Protein backbone atom coordinates (compact mmCIF):
# COMPACT_ATOMS: atom_id res chain seq x y z
CA UNK A 1 0.00 0.00 0.00
CA UNK A 2 2.80 2.37 0.93
CA UNK A 3 4.64 1.50 -2.28
CA UNK A 4 1.51 2.25 -4.36
CA UNK A 5 1.02 5.62 -2.68
CA UNK A 6 4.69 6.50 -3.19
CA UNK A 7 4.52 5.56 -6.88
CA UNK A 8 1.37 7.63 -7.36
CA UNK A 9 3.04 10.57 -5.63
CA UNK A 10 6.14 10.27 -7.83
CA UNK A 11 4.01 10.15 -10.99
CA UNK A 12 2.00 13.17 -9.81
CA UNK A 13 5.15 15.14 -9.04
CA UNK A 14 6.69 14.18 -12.40
CA UNK A 15 3.59 15.16 -14.39
CA UNK A 16 3.31 18.42 -12.44
CA UNK A 17 6.97 19.22 -13.08
CA UNK A 18 6.68 18.67 -16.84
CA UNK A 19 3.40 20.58 -17.00
CA UNK A 20 4.96 23.55 -15.22
CA UNK A 21 8.03 23.27 -17.46
CA UNK A 22 5.82 23.23 -20.58
CA UNK A 23 3.74 26.20 -19.44
CA UNK A 24 6.89 28.14 -18.54
CA UNK A 25 8.36 27.44 -21.98
CA UNK A 26 5.04 28.27 -23.67
CA UNK A 27 4.69 31.59 -21.84
CA UNK A 28 8.31 32.43 -22.66
CA UNK A 29 7.61 31.60 -26.34
CA UNK A 30 4.66 34.01 -26.36
CA UNK A 31 7.09 36.82 -25.52
CA UNK A 32 9.23 36.17 -28.61
CA UNK A 33 8.16 39.25 -30.60
CA UNK A 34 8.10 41.52 -27.55
CA UNK A 35 11.74 40.64 -26.86
CA UNK A 36 12.50 41.65 -30.44
CA UNK A 37 10.65 44.95 -30.06
CA UNK A 38 7.96 44.09 -32.63
CA UNK A 39 4.35 45.09 -31.98
CA UNK A 40 1.40 42.78 -32.51
CA UNK A 41 -1.90 41.53 -31.10
CA UNK A 42 -1.86 40.22 -27.55
CA UNK A 43 -1.85 36.38 -27.58
CA UNK A 44 -3.96 34.18 -25.33
CA UNK A 45 -2.15 31.69 -23.11
CA UNK A 46 -2.97 28.48 -24.98
CA UNK A 47 -3.96 29.39 -28.55
CA UNK A 48 -1.87 32.48 -29.20
CA UNK A 49 -3.76 34.58 -31.76
CA UNK A 50 -5.74 31.66 -33.20
CA UNK A 51 -8.60 31.74 -30.66
CA UNK A 52 -11.16 33.16 -33.12
CA UNK A 53 -10.26 30.45 -35.64
CA UNK A 54 -10.55 27.60 -33.15
CA UNK A 55 -13.88 28.92 -31.86
CA UNK A 56 -15.21 28.89 -35.43
CA UNK A 57 -15.78 32.65 -35.55
CA UNK A 58 -13.34 33.65 -38.29
CA UNK A 59 -11.24 32.10 -41.03
CA UNK A 60 -7.46 32.34 -40.79
CA UNK A 61 -7.58 34.71 -43.76
CA UNK A 62 -10.03 36.99 -41.95
CA UNK A 63 -7.86 36.98 -38.82
CA UNK A 64 -4.76 38.04 -40.77
CA UNK A 65 -6.85 40.61 -42.67
CA UNK A 66 -8.12 42.15 -39.43
CA UNK A 67 -4.57 42.37 -38.08
CA UNK A 68 -3.50 44.06 -41.33
CA UNK A 69 -6.30 46.64 -41.14
CA UNK A 70 -5.82 47.38 -37.44
CA UNK A 71 -2.05 47.77 -37.47
CA UNK A 72 -1.75 49.56 -40.79
CA UNK A 73 -4.14 52.18 -39.38
CA UNK A 74 -1.67 52.58 -36.49
CA UNK A 75 1.20 53.14 -38.92
CA UNK A 76 2.97 49.78 -38.56
CA UNK A 77 4.87 48.24 -41.48
CA UNK A 78 4.91 44.77 -39.93
CA UNK A 79 3.79 42.90 -36.82
CA UNK A 80 4.33 39.64 -34.96
CA UNK A 81 1.61 37.12 -34.03
CA UNK A 82 1.36 33.52 -32.77
CA UNK A 83 -0.36 30.31 -33.79
CA UNK A 84 -0.44 28.48 -30.47
CA UNK A 85 3.15 29.11 -29.37
CA UNK A 86 4.69 29.42 -32.85
CA UNK A 87 5.71 32.95 -33.92
CA UNK A 88 4.42 34.28 -37.26
CA UNK A 89 5.83 37.40 -38.90
CA UNK A 90 3.16 39.39 -40.80
CA UNK A 91 4.18 41.86 -43.50
CA UNK A 92 1.94 44.92 -43.90
CA UNK A 93 4.02 47.24 -46.05
CA UNK A 94 4.07 46.25 -49.74
CA UNK A 95 7.81 46.87 -49.95
CA UNK A 96 8.37 44.24 -47.27
CA UNK A 97 6.01 41.87 -49.10
CA UNK A 98 8.01 42.48 -52.27
CA UNK A 99 11.28 41.79 -50.44
CA UNK A 100 9.97 38.46 -49.12
CA UNK A 101 8.38 37.28 -52.37
CA UNK A 102 10.86 38.61 -54.89
CA UNK A 103 13.80 40.89 -54.05
CA UNK A 104 15.26 38.72 -51.29
CA UNK A 105 13.67 35.48 -52.43
CA UNK A 106 16.82 33.52 -51.55
CA UNK A 107 15.94 34.01 -47.87
CA UNK A 108 12.32 32.85 -48.34
CA UNK A 109 12.36 30.20 -51.06
CA UNK A 110 10.32 27.69 -49.03
CA UNK A 111 6.55 27.67 -48.54
CA UNK A 112 7.20 26.04 -45.17
CA UNK A 113 4.62 23.37 -45.97
CA UNK A 114 4.89 19.84 -44.62
CA UNK A 115 6.95 17.51 -46.82
CA UNK A 116 6.96 13.85 -45.79
CA UNK A 117 7.94 11.93 -48.90
CA UNK A 118 8.33 8.59 -47.14
CA UNK A 119 4.87 8.67 -45.55
CA UNK A 120 3.18 10.45 -48.44
CA UNK A 121 4.93 10.54 -51.86
CA UNK A 122 2.28 12.99 -53.12
CA UNK A 123 3.75 15.77 -50.94
CA UNK A 124 6.98 15.77 -53.00
CA UNK A 125 5.59 18.24 -55.56
CA UNK A 126 6.80 21.61 -56.74
CA UNK A 127 4.66 23.48 -54.18
CA UNK A 128 6.27 21.74 -51.19
CA UNK A 129 9.90 21.23 -52.22
CA UNK A 130 12.43 24.06 -52.04
CA UNK A 131 16.05 24.95 -52.80
CA UNK A 132 17.86 23.21 -55.65
CA UNK A 133 15.18 20.55 -55.90
CA UNK A 134 12.52 23.21 -56.47
CA UNK A 135 14.63 24.96 -59.10
CA UNK A 136 15.17 21.71 -60.97
CA UNK A 137 11.47 20.76 -61.00
CA UNK A 138 10.41 24.32 -61.82
CA UNK A 139 12.73 24.32 -64.81
CA UNK A 140 11.25 21.05 -66.03
CA UNK A 141 7.60 22.01 -65.54
CA UNK A 142 7.64 25.61 -66.80
CA UNK A 143 7.48 24.57 -70.49
CA UNK A 144 4.34 22.52 -69.69
CA UNK A 145 2.39 25.70 -68.88
CA UNK A 146 3.19 27.89 -71.86
CA UNK A 147 0.20 29.26 -73.85
CA UNK A 148 1.06 26.79 -76.62
CA UNK A 149 0.92 23.78 -74.30
CA UNK A 150 -2.31 24.95 -72.68
CA UNK A 151 -3.82 25.39 -76.12
CA UNK A 152 -3.14 21.71 -76.88
CA UNK A 153 -5.29 20.81 -73.84
CA UNK A 154 -8.18 23.02 -74.92
CA UNK A 155 -10.17 20.41 -76.86
CA UNK A 156 -10.24 18.20 -73.76
CA UNK A 157 -11.55 21.17 -71.78
CA UNK A 158 -14.21 21.88 -74.41
CA UNK A 159 -15.63 18.38 -74.01
CA UNK A 160 -16.22 19.11 -70.33
CA UNK A 161 -17.84 22.43 -71.22
CA UNK A 162 -20.22 20.55 -73.52
CA UNK A 163 -21.26 18.32 -70.63
CA UNK A 164 -21.82 21.38 -68.43
CA UNK A 165 -24.01 22.94 -71.12
CA UNK A 166 -26.17 19.80 -71.25
CA UNK A 167 -26.68 19.89 -67.48
CA UNK A 168 -27.59 23.58 -67.58
CA UNK A 169 -30.15 22.86 -70.28
CA UNK A 170 -31.85 20.28 -68.06
CA UNK A 171 -32.18 22.72 -65.16
CA UNK A 172 -33.42 25.47 -67.45
CA UNK A 173 -36.05 23.27 -69.10
CA UNK A 174 -37.27 21.94 -65.75
CA UNK A 175 -37.31 25.43 -64.25
CA UNK A 176 -35.31 24.19 -61.26
CA UNK A 177 -32.74 26.16 -59.22
CA UNK A 178 -29.12 25.33 -59.93
CA UNK A 179 -26.28 25.12 -57.36
CA UNK A 180 -23.36 26.76 -59.15
CA UNK A 181 -20.95 25.81 -56.36
CA UNK A 182 -21.70 22.12 -56.83
CA UNK A 183 -21.61 22.14 -60.63
CA UNK A 184 -18.55 24.39 -60.88
CA UNK A 185 -16.76 21.81 -58.71
CA UNK A 186 -17.90 18.94 -60.93
CA UNK A 187 -16.86 20.88 -64.04
CA UNK A 188 -13.35 21.61 -62.77
CA UNK A 189 -12.91 18.02 -61.53
CA UNK A 190 -13.78 16.72 -64.99
CA UNK A 191 -11.30 19.12 -66.60
CA UNK A 192 -8.48 18.23 -64.21
CA UNK A 193 -9.06 14.47 -64.36
CA UNK A 194 -9.03 14.65 -68.17
CA UNK A 195 -6.14 17.06 -68.71
CA UNK A 196 -3.91 15.88 -65.84
CA UNK A 197 -4.70 12.19 -65.36
CA UNK A 198 -6.00 11.33 -68.83
CA UNK A 199 -9.28 9.97 -67.47
CA UNK A 200 -12.90 10.74 -68.31
CA UNK A 201 -14.66 10.84 -64.93
CA UNK A 202 -18.01 12.40 -65.95
CA UNK A 203 -18.55 13.99 -62.54
CA UNK A 204 -21.06 16.36 -64.14
CA UNK A 205 -23.32 13.44 -64.90
CA UNK A 206 -22.23 11.25 -62.00
CA UNK A 207 -21.73 13.21 -58.75
CA UNK A 208 -20.54 10.02 -57.04
CA UNK A 209 -17.54 9.56 -59.32
CA UNK A 210 -14.35 8.40 -57.60
CA UNK A 211 -12.51 11.63 -58.37
CA UNK A 212 -15.33 13.67 -56.85
CA UNK A 213 -15.41 11.51 -53.74
CA UNK A 214 -11.66 11.72 -53.18
CA UNK A 215 -11.61 15.40 -54.07
CA UNK A 216 -14.09 16.01 -51.26
CA UNK A 217 -11.91 13.98 -48.89
CA UNK A 218 -9.05 16.39 -49.64
CA UNK A 219 -10.95 19.68 -49.58
CA UNK A 220 -14.10 19.18 -47.53
CA UNK A 221 -13.41 20.93 -44.25
CA UNK A 222 -14.49 18.18 -41.88
CA UNK A 223 -13.28 18.08 -38.29
CA UNK A 224 -10.96 15.22 -39.29
CA UNK A 225 -9.37 17.21 -42.14
CA UNK A 226 -8.88 20.27 -39.92
CA UNK A 227 -7.29 18.18 -37.16
CA UNK A 228 -4.93 16.44 -39.60
CA UNK A 229 -3.76 19.81 -40.97
CA UNK A 230 -3.10 21.34 -37.54
CA UNK A 231 0.03 19.48 -36.25
CA UNK A 232 2.38 20.73 -39.04
CA UNK A 233 1.43 24.30 -38.07
CA UNK A 234 2.51 23.90 -34.44
CA UNK A 235 4.96 20.97 -34.26
CA UNK A 236 8.44 20.99 -35.87
CA UNK A 237 8.24 18.99 -39.09
CA UNK A 238 11.26 16.83 -38.27
CA UNK A 239 9.38 15.29 -35.35
CA UNK A 240 6.34 14.55 -37.51
CA UNK A 241 8.51 12.99 -40.22
CA UNK A 242 10.17 10.79 -37.58
CA UNK A 243 6.80 9.16 -36.85
CA UNK A 244 5.78 9.06 -40.56
CA UNK A 245 2.94 11.51 -39.98
CA UNK A 246 0.78 12.21 -43.03
CA UNK A 247 -1.76 14.98 -43.53
CA UNK A 248 -3.62 13.00 -46.17
CA UNK A 249 -5.53 9.86 -45.33
CA UNK A 250 -3.97 6.61 -46.55
CA UNK A 251 -6.89 5.82 -48.87
CA UNK A 252 -6.53 9.24 -50.55
CA UNK A 253 -2.79 8.71 -51.09
CA UNK A 254 -3.38 5.22 -52.46
CA UNK A 255 -6.12 6.37 -54.85
CA UNK A 256 -4.17 9.18 -56.52
CA UNK A 257 -0.89 7.27 -56.49
CA UNK A 258 -2.35 4.06 -57.93
CA UNK A 259 -4.47 5.93 -60.48
CA UNK A 260 -1.41 7.70 -61.86
CA UNK A 261 0.99 4.74 -61.72
CA UNK A 262 -1.44 2.37 -63.44
CA UNK A 263 -2.08 4.97 -66.14
CA UNK A 264 1.67 5.44 -66.69
CA UNK A 265 2.20 1.68 -66.92
CA UNK A 266 -0.65 1.25 -69.41
CA UNK A 267 0.57 4.08 -71.64
CA UNK A 268 4.18 2.93 -71.66
CA UNK A 269 3.30 -0.70 -72.33
CA UNK A 270 0.94 0.20 -75.19
CA UNK A 271 2.87 3.20 -76.53
CA UNK A 272 -0.15 5.47 -76.08
CA UNK A 273 0.15 9.22 -76.62
CA UNK A 274 -2.51 11.72 -75.55
CA UNK A 275 -2.44 15.49 -75.56
CA UNK A 276 -2.58 16.00 -71.82
CA UNK A 277 -0.45 17.02 -68.84
CA UNK A 278 0.46 13.42 -68.00
CA UNK A 279 1.91 12.91 -71.47
CA UNK A 280 3.99 16.09 -71.11
CA UNK A 281 5.42 14.76 -67.84
CA UNK A 282 6.14 11.35 -69.37
CA UNK A 283 8.07 13.05 -72.17
CA UNK A 284 10.09 14.95 -69.55
CA UNK A 285 10.77 11.69 -67.72
CA UNK A 286 11.85 9.79 -70.81
CA UNK A 287 13.95 12.57 -72.35
CA UNK A 288 16.07 13.34 -69.26
CA UNK A 289 19.57 11.87 -69.60
CA UNK A 290 20.73 12.76 -66.07
CA UNK A 291 19.46 9.93 -63.86
CA UNK A 292 19.77 12.08 -60.73
CA UNK A 293 17.37 14.65 -62.20
CA UNK A 294 15.04 12.21 -63.93
CA UNK A 295 11.36 12.47 -63.00
CA UNK A 296 10.21 9.26 -61.31
CA UNK A 297 6.75 7.73 -61.61
CA UNK A 298 6.05 8.83 -58.02
CA UNK A 299 7.27 12.32 -58.92
CA UNK A 300 4.82 12.44 -61.83
CA UNK A 301 2.02 11.31 -59.50
CA UNK A 302 2.94 14.10 -57.06
CA UNK A 303 2.78 16.78 -59.78
CA UNK A 304 -0.52 15.43 -61.15
CA UNK A 305 -1.94 15.53 -57.63
CA UNK A 306 -0.79 19.14 -57.21
CA UNK A 307 -2.40 19.98 -60.57
CA UNK A 308 -5.60 18.48 -59.18
CA UNK A 309 -5.28 20.43 -55.91
CA UNK A 310 -4.58 23.73 -57.68
CA UNK A 311 -7.12 23.43 -60.48
CA UNK A 312 -10.15 21.97 -58.73
CA UNK A 313 -11.40 23.91 -55.71
CA UNK A 314 -9.70 27.23 -56.49
CA UNK A 315 -11.15 27.57 -60.01
CA UNK A 316 -14.54 26.25 -58.87
CA UNK A 317 -14.65 28.90 -56.13
CA UNK A 318 -13.72 31.66 -58.60
CA UNK A 319 -16.44 30.58 -61.04
CA UNK A 320 -18.96 30.49 -58.18
CA UNK A 321 -18.09 33.91 -56.76
CA UNK A 322 -17.98 35.56 -60.20
CA UNK A 323 -21.41 34.12 -60.97
CA UNK A 324 -22.69 35.30 -57.58
CA UNK A 325 -21.58 38.88 -58.28
CA UNK A 326 -23.08 38.87 -61.78
CA UNK A 327 -26.33 37.41 -60.44
CA UNK A 328 -26.82 40.41 -58.14
CA UNK A 329 -25.80 42.93 -60.82
CA UNK A 330 -27.94 42.36 -63.92
CA UNK A 331 -26.42 45.29 -65.84
CA UNK A 332 -22.92 43.93 -65.37
CA UNK A 333 -24.15 40.46 -66.29
CA UNK A 334 -25.71 41.79 -69.52
CA UNK A 335 -22.52 43.69 -70.38
CA UNK A 336 -20.45 40.54 -69.89
CA UNK A 337 -22.85 38.47 -72.02
CA UNK A 338 -22.80 41.11 -74.74
CA UNK A 339 -19.00 40.97 -74.98
CA UNK A 340 -18.99 37.15 -74.99
CA UNK A 341 -21.48 36.91 -77.86
CA UNK A 342 -19.81 39.73 -79.79
CA UNK A 343 -16.45 37.95 -79.68
CA UNK A 344 -17.94 34.52 -80.45
CA UNK A 345 -19.66 35.86 -83.58
CA UNK A 346 -16.16 36.46 -84.97
CA UNK A 347 -15.48 32.73 -84.47
CA UNK A 348 -18.71 31.35 -86.01
CA UNK A 349 -20.26 31.21 -82.52
CA UNK A 350 -17.76 28.55 -81.49
CA UNK A 351 -15.77 28.74 -78.27
CA UNK A 352 -12.09 28.69 -79.15
CA UNK A 353 -8.92 29.36 -77.20
CA UNK A 354 -8.35 32.53 -79.24
CA UNK A 355 -11.91 33.73 -78.58
CA UNK A 356 -11.48 33.40 -74.83
CA UNK A 357 -8.22 35.34 -74.99
CA UNK A 358 -10.06 38.25 -76.66
CA UNK A 359 -12.67 38.59 -73.90
CA UNK A 360 -11.11 41.49 -72.03
CA UNK A 361 -14.16 42.50 -70.00
CA UNK A 362 -14.68 38.90 -68.85
CA UNK A 363 -11.05 38.83 -67.78
CA UNK A 364 -11.61 41.99 -65.73
CA UNK A 365 -14.60 40.31 -64.07
CA UNK A 366 -12.36 37.38 -63.13
CA UNK A 367 -9.55 39.65 -61.89
CA UNK A 368 -11.99 41.56 -59.68
CA UNK A 369 -13.44 38.28 -58.40
CA UNK A 370 -9.92 37.16 -57.47
CA UNK A 371 -9.37 40.48 -55.70
CA UNK A 372 -12.54 40.28 -53.67
CA UNK A 373 -12.46 36.51 -53.13
CA UNK A 374 -8.82 35.34 -53.33
CA UNK A 375 -8.85 31.50 -53.14
CA UNK A 376 -5.83 31.60 -50.84
CA UNK A 377 -6.39 34.62 -48.56
CA UNK A 378 -2.77 34.65 -47.34
CA UNK A 379 0.68 33.47 -48.40
CA UNK A 380 3.17 31.66 -46.19
CA UNK A 381 6.92 31.69 -46.65
CA UNK A 382 9.49 30.14 -44.32
CA UNK A 383 12.63 32.13 -43.60
CA UNK A 384 15.44 29.84 -44.77
CA UNK A 385 18.33 31.94 -43.45
CA UNK A 386 18.51 34.85 -41.00
CA UNK A 387 17.22 38.03 -42.61
CA UNK A 388 17.31 41.70 -41.64
CA UNK A 389 14.10 43.48 -42.63
CA UNK A 390 14.92 46.44 -44.92
CA UNK A 391 14.60 49.77 -43.13
CA UNK A 392 13.88 48.13 -39.78
CA UNK A 393 15.93 47.10 -36.76
CA UNK A 394 14.62 43.54 -36.87
CA UNK A 395 16.12 40.22 -37.83
CA UNK A 396 13.81 37.39 -38.87
CA UNK A 397 15.40 34.17 -37.70
CA UNK A 398 15.79 31.07 -39.82
CA UNK A 399 12.76 28.80 -39.51
CA UNK A 400 10.29 31.61 -38.78
CA UNK A 401 7.03 31.60 -40.74
CA UNK A 402 6.27 34.82 -42.60
CA UNK A 403 2.80 35.74 -43.80
CA UNK A 404 1.50 38.01 -46.55
CA UNK A 405 -2.15 38.85 -45.69
CA UNK A 406 -3.61 38.87 -49.21
CA UNK A 407 -7.19 39.47 -48.10
CA UNK A 408 -6.17 42.53 -46.10
CA UNK A 409 -4.18 43.96 -49.01
CA UNK A 410 -7.03 43.30 -51.47
CA UNK A 411 -9.48 45.22 -49.26
CA UNK A 412 -7.16 48.14 -48.52
CA UNK A 413 -8.95 51.36 -49.62
CA UNK A 414 -5.56 52.94 -50.34
CA UNK A 415 -5.19 50.53 -53.27
CA UNK A 416 -8.85 49.78 -54.02
CA UNK A 417 -11.28 52.63 -53.16
CA UNK A 418 -14.62 51.35 -51.84
CA UNK A 419 -13.17 47.82 -51.63
CA UNK A 420 -16.50 46.11 -50.81
CA UNK A 421 -17.90 47.17 -54.19
CA UNK A 422 -17.49 44.72 -57.09
CA UNK A 423 -16.00 46.82 -59.89
CA UNK A 424 -14.23 45.04 -62.79
CA UNK A 425 -13.21 48.41 -64.24
CA UNK A 426 -10.50 48.60 -61.58
CA UNK A 427 -8.61 46.31 -63.96
CA UNK A 428 -9.16 48.23 -67.18
CA UNK A 429 -5.96 49.00 -69.06
CA UNK A 430 -5.99 52.58 -67.76
CA UNK A 431 -7.04 51.95 -64.16
CA UNK A 432 -4.76 49.02 -63.43
CA UNK A 433 -1.79 51.38 -63.74
CA UNK A 434 -2.82 52.91 -60.41
CA UNK A 435 -2.66 49.53 -58.62
CA UNK A 436 0.79 49.24 -57.00
CA UNK A 437 2.94 46.17 -57.61
CA UNK A 438 2.24 43.39 -55.08
CA UNK A 439 -1.24 44.75 -54.28
CA UNK A 440 -2.97 41.98 -56.30
CA UNK A 441 -1.72 38.55 -55.24
CA UNK A 442 -4.23 35.74 -55.99
CA UNK A 443 -1.49 33.71 -57.68
CA UNK A 444 1.37 34.86 -55.48
CA UNK A 445 4.28 36.77 -56.97
CA UNK A 446 8.00 36.45 -57.61
CA UNK A 447 9.85 33.25 -58.60
CA UNK A 448 7.23 31.07 -56.85
CA UNK A 449 4.23 32.60 -58.60
CA UNK A 450 1.66 29.93 -59.48
CA UNK A 451 2.79 28.00 -62.56
CA UNK A 452 -0.79 27.09 -63.45
CA UNK A 453 -2.06 30.68 -63.53
CA UNK A 454 -2.77 30.70 -67.28
CA UNK A 455 -4.46 27.31 -67.13
CA UNK A 456 -6.65 28.41 -64.20
CA UNK A 457 -7.73 31.58 -66.00
CA UNK A 458 -8.67 29.67 -69.17
CA UNK A 459 -10.53 27.03 -67.14
CA UNK A 460 -12.46 29.77 -65.30
CA UNK A 461 -13.23 31.69 -68.49
CA UNK A 462 -14.53 28.57 -70.18
CA UNK A 463 -16.86 27.73 -67.31
CA UNK A 464 -18.24 31.27 -67.15
CA UNK A 465 -18.71 31.58 -70.91
CA UNK A 466 -20.61 28.27 -71.01
CA UNK A 467 -23.04 29.63 -68.42
CA UNK A 468 -23.29 33.32 -69.31
CA UNK A 469 -23.64 33.16 -73.10
CA UNK A 470 -26.92 31.20 -73.07
CA UNK A 471 -28.61 32.02 -69.76
CA UNK A 472 -29.71 34.90 -67.62
CA UNK A 473 -29.46 34.06 -63.96
CA UNK A 474 -30.35 35.51 -60.59
CA UNK A 475 -29.90 34.46 -56.98
CA UNK A 476 -32.46 31.97 -55.76
CA UNK A 477 -34.17 32.78 -52.44
CA UNK A 478 -32.35 29.85 -50.79
CA UNK A 479 -28.91 31.38 -51.41
CA UNK A 480 -27.33 33.06 -48.39
CA UNK A 481 -27.13 36.81 -49.04
CA UNK A 482 -24.84 38.56 -48.41
CA UNK A 483 -22.32 35.78 -48.87
CA UNK A 484 -20.88 34.10 -45.77
CA UNK A 485 -17.64 32.14 -45.72
CA UNK A 486 -16.98 28.58 -44.66
CA UNK A 487 -14.91 29.07 -41.50
CA UNK A 488 -13.14 25.70 -41.58
CA UNK A 489 -11.64 25.71 -45.08
CA UNK A 490 -8.24 27.10 -46.09
CA UNK A 491 -9.57 27.76 -49.62
CA UNK A 492 -12.07 30.63 -49.58
CA UNK A 493 -15.55 29.32 -50.38
CA UNK A 494 -19.09 30.22 -49.50
CA UNK A 495 -21.00 28.76 -46.61
CA UNK A 496 -23.79 26.56 -47.94
CA UNK A 497 -25.02 26.16 -51.49
CA UNK A 498 -25.14 28.96 -54.05
CA UNK A 499 -28.46 28.53 -55.83
CA UNK A 500 -29.27 30.29 -59.11
CA UNK A 501 -32.49 30.62 -61.09
CA UNK A 502 -31.80 30.15 -64.80
CA UNK A 503 -33.65 31.69 -67.71
CA UNK A 504 -32.83 31.33 -71.39
UniProtKB/TrEMBL annotation:
InterPro entries: Cyt_P450, Cyt_P450_CS, Cyt_P450_E_grp-I, Cyt_P450_sf, Insect_CytP450_Detox. Gene3D superfamilies: Cytochrome P450. One of its GO terms (cellular component) is endoplasmic reticulum membrane. Signal peptide: none annotated. Pfam families: p450 (PF00067). Its main location: endoplasmic reticulum. It comes from the Eukaryota. It is found in: Endoplasmic reticulum membrane; Microsome membrane. Belongs to the cytochrome P450 family. This is Cytochrome P450. It comes from Psylliodes chrysocephalus. The lineage of its organism: Eukaryota, Metazoa, Ecdysozoa, Arthropoda, Hexapoda.
